[in-house]
């Protein structure tokens, strides 16, 4: 008996471990086709896992939050909502310039396409670091799982992904497809002096420039009573504001 058990454990080590590939595939199975397709365009399992975590956390909102296609962006830019956005930015800029003579605001108003979000997700270093941490945690988690994902184990792994929290702070990018920039619901503002950007959207400049030189506070002051809410707290991005469009009877399709 003892010999048989020993033989079994020697023969089966490859099968005894739950494979992260299989589990990743299992939790991806019920995502929307667009999200599944995005996963295919993400480099490496750690970044894929981190994106899938974002998709699972979005839950039912995945579809309504999903970034516009190039065609949808064009339609949006031809419509009233876009004109409203531009005029709201102009108001904020005028207020900022009046309070800070010699300085202005630059805002990129082009919605961030899925392609661009994928490109950034695949190349961003902080995303890579957080993705590796999640991957290590997932490998540890799966040691207690059945070798092949059944329905129950798949749900359990999905729960694990949803509950996992990045340390020390959130990834600097939303999972590809889920950026609020993908539907022009978020705008990044930068501080300009003589046509030169002096406070850029760089994590390394948050303390030294945005906070140290007071731009975070001055930008926030210009946003008061506007349709922009923010800035983003986690991660700390003093330049990132969410835009609430005016409610309209007929808008861009959700
Ligand atoms: Zn942003």
Describe this structure in words.
The structure is a single chain. The protein has 13 helices and 5 strands. Strands 1, 2, 3, 4 and 5 form a 5-stranded antiparallel sheet that branches. Helix 3 runs parallel beside helix 5 (45-58), helix 5 (45-58) crosses helix 10 and helix 8 (80-99) crosses helix 13. Mean pLDDT is 91; it is low at 1-14. 52% of the residues lie in helices and 9% in strands. It has 254 residues and is of the alpha+beta class. The chain starts with a helix and ends in an 11-residue tail after the last strand. It has helices at residues 2-11, 13-16, 20-28, 33-40, 45-58, 62-65, 70-77, 80-99, 114-123, 125-142, 151-163, 206-211, 215-223; strands at 103-107, 186-193, 196-199, 228-229, 240-243. The structure holds zinc ion (ZN).
List key phrases describing it.
single chain, 254 residues, alpha+beta, 2 domains, disordered N terminus, binds zinc ion
Summarize this structure briefly.
With 254 residues, the chain is α+β, with helices and mostly antiparallel strands. Helix content is 52%, strand content 9%. It folds into 2 domains: 99 residues, no CATH class; 91 residues, no CATH class.
Q: How far do the termini sit from each other?
A: 64 Å
Total helical elements: 13
How many structural domains in the coordinates? 2
Uncertain runs are 1-14
Beta-strand content bin: 5-15%
What is the chain-wise order of helices and strands?
A: HHHHHHHHEHHHEEHHEE
The biggest beta sheet is recorded as: 5 strands, antiparallel
Q: What is the total tally of β strands? A: 5
The helical percent reads 40-55%
Shape estimate? elongated
Bound ligands? zinc ion
**Subunit arrangement of the protein:** single chain
Calculate Rg over CA atoms.
23 Å
Mean pLDDT over the residues:
91
User: Structural class, from secondary structure content?
Assistant: alpha+beta
